[in-house]
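Q: Got a minute? One more chain.
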Amino acid sequence: MRRSLLAAMFALLAWCGSARTESQTPFPPSLVDVKGSFIVAGQIGGLAWGAKKAVENPLLAAGQRVIHLTLQGEFVRPNWRLVHETGTVPISTDGSFTIEHDLSVGQVSFEVLAVGPEGEVELQTVGFIREATPEGVEPPSPEDQDDFPTHKRFSVTLAEENTALSQASLRGFNLNNLFVGLDGAHAILGNAFEVGGAVQGSVANISNPLPGIETHFLDANVYIGRKWRWDRFELVPCVRGLYSTMFVTNDAFGYQNLSGEGLALIGRWYPSRSYAFSAWLGYSYLNSSLAIGNRELGGRARFIYRWTKNDELGFEAGYDGLAFSTSGNSLNRGSGIFQLSYSRVY
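A: Always. Here it is, folded:
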């Protein structure tokens, strides 16, 4: 049963990848900022320019690159209209507008016209002069320009788990454990797929209501998923496997060698070069049992701070719930998790 379900999940994942259209590449190249100066010549009454930005696609050859300009401004002049080469510029009721223009190779400027109610015309020329790269200095590569590359990540983790444990033969109780662990992720097949995993074990009981009985956990998981990226957002649907066991003095209670398979969804958002957010949600069935009572359900949210290109800190919170029943003996483990991690990324 387990093998057939895993085969079905992998087939579904592969079909999702093959069903994508050509226009939805898994890792579309990011546009990067172009340094330079904007120059405005001429005068149009009532026109005031605001924010201006220039970007390009660095993966294209130099002779194919187009500089994409975005200019915002305000035009307040009753009965007059603003015209760009694409036509009349839409202007909101408060006078604000946005113009987008592509400068092809060799082009450095474009014109904006203001047309009055009786055909009067006023003209401005908007130019963009790109900042020259100093001689002997190579321009940054596309990977260097990527806001938050995540091709490889290796992490060490330190976590506190507040665990509520209950078993049919034992009254429920709470305990706090300190965990240490390792995890990692690696993009493969041209960044279209991601594989990863983690292992984490408790090393100390911070609080324990059972004197003389040590209670420890060892948890591990692996996953493989397809990466879907849109601008600064990333989504990774995965198939995953997990393993969990307990070490209890004199085997007084607990479980040993639980394993499971299931699905997970990872989401990431990269709003800047310095920080990012990620979250995941997963569901797995345990020991080949599809019964609702035999499952692991968890989710986490993470804030990532990167202080160098290759070093980052993570602050994570989440919850994992495990329930298992066999031979009339039911067990529930619910853990609130607070985790700190250091990662090396490439």
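A: Confidence is low (pLDDT under 50) at residues 1-6, 15-29, 137-145.
Q: Perfect, thanks.
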